Amino acid sequence: MVTCDNKKERYRVVVSNGRDEIASDTTDDKGGGGSAMRPHEFLEAALAACLNMTIRMHADREGIPLTKITTQVSADRSRPGHTIFRYSFDLEGALTNEQREGLQRVAEACPVRKTLSNAISFVGSV
Predict the structure, then answer these.
(1) Phi and psi dihedrals of 58, rounded to 5?
(2) What are phi and psi of 13, to 5 degrees?
(3) Its pTM surpasses 0.85
(4) Pair 63, 80 in one domain
(5) Which residue among 85, 92, 107, 118 is least crowded, i.e. fewest CB within 10 A of its CB?
(6) SS3 (DSSP) at 122
(7) What was the pLDDT predicted at 88?
(8) How many domains does the chain have?
(9) Cα Dmax for the chain
């Protein structure tokens, strides 16, 4: 579970999981200070982190010589009612084409990708 508390600065918040904290804000044009990641960027970050970890874990288990992976994720919300997450990887290491293609396929097993692919419901309380 995470908690989120507002700060003195307009729209700036701090999100905590009880161990770590990270700030969020909105852009200047929406009344915020633009001082931290926007909430939608957290969605992109969650997917990027999970994709990266999933591929690294697989490479470690299989002895694939992956030395570094950089993951890029963007959320295209330009169509009402439809979001497209676009992602890509920069894989480093002495990898064969077959290993590179296999690591791309492993991305489908990312738990956050699976969660975002499912139907989502919300339950709120005051």
Answers:
(1) -65, -45
(2) -135, 160
(3) yes
(4) yes
(5) 118
(6) coil
(7) 96
(8) 2
(9) 54
**Which range of residues forms the domain containing residue 16?**
1-37
pLDDT at 34: 92
By CB neighbour count within 10 A (0-12 exposed, 13-18 middle, 19+ buried), where does 125 fall?
Answer: exposed
Indicate the residue type of 21.
E
How far apart are alpha carbons 87 and 19 in whole angstroms? 29
Residues 8 and 48 in one domain: no
Q: From the CA atom positions of the chain, what is the Rg in Å?
A: 18
* Residues recorded for the chain: 126
Q: Are residues 47 and 101 in the same domain?
A: yes
Which regions in the chain score pLDDT beneath 50?
none
Instruction: Please report the pLDDT score of residue 5 as a whole number.
Output: 97
In terms of domains, do 23 and 43 share one?
no
